[in-house]
Automatic annotation (TrEMBL):
Belongs to the group II decarboxylase family. One of its GO terms (biological process) is gamma-aminobutyric acid biosynthetic process. Homodimer. Keywords: Decarboxylase, Lyase, Pyridoxal phosphate. The modification N6-(pyridoxal phosphate)lysine is found at residue 349. This is Glutamate decarboxylase. It comes from Mythimna separata. GO terms for molecular function: glutamate decarboxylase activity; pyridoxal phosphate binding. One of its GO terms (cellular component) is cytoplasm.
Length: 540
């Protein structure tokens, strides 16, 4: 028997170790089971990979590759109709199931990979074809690719200096969106959500009408500012009144008609009333696509009133803005939008761009800088080698700003403008299909109103309530059914449809078709599954 030298023994061990690693890597690459790290990488800690160790390219790559495998598995599950949308757990139980604790000592990479898996395992799959619960849903693959890249680029959007490519992209996309609204010039910004976009519109309106406000404050206005919005508007409009010192009593709710659209005659009456009392009506919010009913306020008539009383007109199209792509559905819903002074439009809703992506647009060039600039000298020097107009940081009330543009730009490149148009038309067709199917089953479903958008409002009738005449008593019972049936959906994990009351009726279902994953068979599934889970519900 030959003796091994120490060197020989060492190289022999190394070969075996490499063999084991190769085997592990093969197993994890062959798609069997869940992604796993080889033991030599799994047992490493954060300070053994980049950027702490220059010679750790391979280990870093392996770690990130397995994380990507976790992501790809999730994408697969999201699109698998046999998978549940969620495994619902009560918060106490979830707390036990997941170890959320932060420790003094570091954890190895293999634990972090497990943490990644666990987080996605218990996450609601908002891109699942049976998820009808929220205005923002769906998992657009191209947009997802953009978001992954955005995270890797990890830059701040405040100066051209550090985000040259993304700043120019913003300019192109936002100009395109303004053109779709119907403006040739103007100003725009991406904001962290539609609510903040609405706040930007409010601030710009106040600055436009009362430029002295910026330095001198509220008392320089000489009258109490009043804003108007419909009683169906998004609550963020009202919050502007509170945030900006008007007080919510001075955000006047204009009554809407039975389909949820602002009544222009009521708007005019209320404007006159407040003007005659010495207040200063200055801002009207019209909603294009209300959050619950999907209603469109009549923009032309509202624009006439704004013109007559010299008020700023804002259109909150956070939800309905996407329909600007559609020749078929844009009119009459958004007719007159070009007469607005500002428009909020969330690509992360109807257009399916990944969260978060929200835009606000202004008719007036330079208004954001005029309104919001604080001229911080350490960021926005005016003697830079490029034109400082490319720095966006001083246009906003934030300092740093997240890159929300790349995922939208890439998605738009991928789809083309025509692809977005087809997407809008498809969503609307599916909602029309759902309405037809609901009407075909009047014993089981009650359509509340003809929708203008992809929000469909309806009640489900369990056996107990079928054939009973429809009256206020019955509506109360149908409202109780909503909460019970929603509970059953969550428990079974097979379907998610949202419900809420409004000021005309108790709880009712509002389904949303806003995901490219949804087809006719998913709409049929929604209705059939509600019936399967709900038919035996009894309420008193
Ligand atoms: C969703 C919505 C908002 C708020 O948008 P966030 O991005 O959630 O802040 C504002 N207005 C309307 C009409 C909406 O539907």
């Amino acid at each position: 028997m030959s003796k091994l030298s120490l060197d020989g023994f060492y190289s022999y061990c190394k070969q075996i170790a490499e063999h084991i690693q190769l085997g592990e890597r093969m197993a994890s690459l062959s798609g069997q089971g869940t992604p796993r790290l080889t033991s030599s990488v799994g047992n490493l800690y954060y300070d053994s990979i980049l950027p702490y160790r220059e010679d750790s390219q391979a280990q870093t790559r392996e770690f990130l590759s397995r994380v990507v495998d976790v992501l790809l598995d999730f994408v697969h599950q999201v699109n698998d109709r046999n998978e549940k949308i969620l495994e619902f757990r009560m918060p106490e139980e979830m707390n036990k199931l997941c170890d959320f604790q932060l420790h003094d000592e570091p954890l190895p990479l293999k634990q972090l990979l497990e943490d990644c898996k666990l987080a996605l395992k218990h996450q609601v799959k908002t891109g699942h074809p049976h998820f009808f619960n929220q205005l923002s849903c769906g998992l657009d693959i191209i947009s997802l690719a953009g978001e992954w890249l955005t995270a890797a680029a990890n830059t701040n959007m405040f100066t051209y200096e550090i985000a040259p490519v993304f700043i120019l992209m913003e300019n192109v996309v936002l100009e395109k969106m303004r053109n779709m609204i119907g403006w040739r010039t103007g100003d725009s910004i991406l904001a962290p959500g539609g609510s903040i976009s609405n706040l930007y519109a409010f601030l710009a309106a106040r600055h436009h009408k009362f430029p002295q406000y910026k330095e001198k404050g509220l008392s320089s206005i000489g009258g109490h500012l009043v804003m108007f919005t419909s009683d169906q508007c998004h609550y963020s409009v009202k919050s502007c009144a509170s945030v900006c010192g008007l007080g919510t009593d001075y955000c006047i709710c204009v009554p809407s008609d039975e389909r949820g659209r602002m009544i222009p005659a009521e708007l005019e009456r209320l404007v006159k009333y407040h003007r005659d009392r010495g207040n200063v009506p200055f801002f009207v919010n019209a909603t294009s696509g209300t959050t619950v009913l999907g209603a469109f306020d009549p923009l032309e008539e509202i624009a006439d009133i704004c013109q007559k009383y010299d008020m700023w007109m804002h259109v909150d199209a956070a939800w309905g803005g996407g329909l600007l792509f559609s020749k078929k559905y844009r009119h009459p819903r958004l007719t007159g939008v070009e007469r607005a002074d500002s428009v909020t439009w969330n690509p992360h809703k109807l257009m399916g761009t990944l969260l978060q992506c929200s835009t606000v647009h202004f008719k007036y060039e330079g208004i954001l800088l005029n309104c919001n600039a604080m001229s911080a000298e350490y960021l926005f020097m005016t003697d830079k080698i490029y034109d400082p107009k490319y720095d966006t940081g001083d246009k906003v009330i934030q300092c740093g700003r997240h890159n929300d543009i790349f995922k939208l730009w890439l998605q738009w490149r991928g789809k083309g403008t025509s692809g977005f148009e087809r997407h809008m038309d498809r969503l609307m067709e599916l909602a029309e299909y759902q309405v037809r199917r609901i009407k075909e089953q009047p014993d089981k479903f009650h359509l509340i109103l003809e929708p203008e958008m992809v929000n469909v409002s309806f009640w489900y009738l369990p056996k107990q309530l079928r054939g009973v005449p429809h009256d206020a008593q019955k509506e109360i019972k149908l409202g109780k059914v909503c909460a019970k049936l929603k509970g059953k959906m969550m428990q079974s994990g097979t379907l998610m449809v949202g419900y809420q009351p409004d000021d005309r009726r108790p709880n009712f279902y509002r389904s949303i078709i806003s995901s490219a994953a949804v087809t006719e068979k998913d709409v049929d599934f929604m209705l059939a599954e509600m019936d399967r889970l709900g038919q035996d519900i009894i309420v008193d």
